[in-house]
Design goal:
binds guanosine-5'-monophosphate; alpha/beta; six-stranded mixed sheet; six-stranded parallel sheet; binds manganese (II) ion; single chain
Length: 318
Amino acid sequence: MIVLSELKTLLATPQQIVITTHHKPDGDAMGSSLGLYAFLIQKGHHVSVITPTDYPDFLHWMPNNSNVIVYTEAQEQAIQLVNEAKLIFCCDFNTLSRINELGEHIRNASGLKLMIDHHLDPEDFDDYRHWNINACAAAQLVYDFIVNELKEPELINKDVATCLYTGIMTDSGSFRFPSATSTVYRIGADLIDLGAEHWRIHQLVYDNASENRLRFLGHCLSNKLEILREFNTAIITATAEELQTYNIATGDTEGIVNYALSINGIKLAAFIIERPDRVKLSLRSTGDFPANEICKKYFNGGGHRNAAGGVSDKSLID
Ligand code: 5GP
Ligand code: MN
């Protein structure tokens, strides 16, 4: 482990830095990573953002998106960057299994590993940790890291503010989950003052769906929604064939689970999807019901109390 003063000393001179985030990155994964990127490049560092896989089109508008390296598309380049990096920031995840094959390269790399995360049960692979499960988003922790740890709020420019706002907005359900405290609203207001165009960001993320997604959503709600009243549970399943029929791309299925949770009396919603290699589950819950414990116990997964995920080797059909 290193302490903050050592990290500050390292960041005072230009370094080779890698920022990485979890498999199938979401708005917070990309927002925290690209926000940190836009901050660090102002300090003269050589920075690369590497994602383990591709991510939805509705996140491709973010500043510096064109510099992102997708591991599955540029493996050799990504491995070289990881091996040469002095510092490796791990944003929005805390176990190396969340970044697939890239995880072992990072475990074996000589660079210092710095975790910026808000999930439960961190794995012990890091050298520095800015971790808080009460944060609504990893992007909130990047903000906190810049403002309260490094004390460089003047480096939150429009690009940094835009990315961090995106992460906070997406992970807090547009500032509506219990995690969206008054502090989070104040941070949001600060980011707006610093250049984040909240209305435009919301539009780019949420009003930017493909026609396929909307038609697929209609199919899921009309034909695939099962309600188990006695368990206060709603389930939507989607087979590989259905995904193909609607030509569903990465990101098109995001948020569908929330429609199931919006039914009165429903406390647990599941969206279960047949991926080529395994069945993937997305769970959402309300109140104290721990979706993450179900994922941890039965589906080799985890997450937050009200938003969690996991996988199953069982068939979707049986
Ligand atoms: P989603 O349902 O949007 O894929 O994931 C919701 C949350 O659940 C994510 O932010 C992440 O914290 C967690 N999560 C999703 N899939 C997995 C998984 O396979 N393993 C673990 N540990 N967490 C997951
Ligand atoms: Mn997050």
